[in-house]
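Recap from last week: sequence in, structure out.
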Amino acid sequence: MTAIRANSILPGKRDAIVLHTADELELIGELAVPVANEPVATLICVHPLPTHGGMMDSHLFRKAAWRLPALADLAVLRFNTRGTSSVQGTSQGEFDNAVSERFDLAAAIEYTEFHDLPNVWLVGWSFGTDLVLKYGLDPHVSGAILLSPPLRYGTDADLAAWAEDGRPLTALVPERDDYLRPAEAAERFSVIPQAEVVGIDGAKHLWVGDAERALNEIVERVNPAAAPLPTDWDGPMETGDSSGYADRTVAAFSDVEVPGPKQRKATD
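Predicted structure tokens:
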């Protein structure tokens, strides 16, 4: 048995994909699926604010793609929203402040439907949570998980729509988040009867050092039979190189992302 490290890559079939939006853009993406088994569920990962470092290769989503196909029989689809760059490539278009990005999320959902991927869950992180709240109530979506939701672009009307719809919604809120902490999150999401707000002790907005906890929380809701995730692996394992991009670039956005008018910056 070998310990699973931050850059461990477990077996999986990973293919570069292109998403086609309704406004005729091409978005860079990747689909990771189990090698031997059919996936039991699918995660669509929607990344943090691209103007400040968020991308499909942000560390938490990279680790999900590298681990969860092997550890939890999950398919993991991640993509760069319009105008976003990573080592995977640059998506066409320009950042549009969560407006035209509705086409980006729709294209990812459509891809999973066209390719018969099962039990689709949206996993948004920071800016990505707002896209999920605003545009995620597609008939093909089973539920959603929000990581560090700032509720910057999401409106009361968006929350009301989820309340009326009734699909499961979980918010994983770091204890030391910069924008929305657990007590305030519980109040804001209280308008959604089915919403589950989980405070994560000691964690911060970027989940640095707490990625494993986040992945466990996700798997517990999407494929509980695979939780808790093992910390060792008895089989082939590779080591990825992230020194040139994800952890260093995504670390920038938390300090400069501007909260919306209803938010206050939490202090340590």
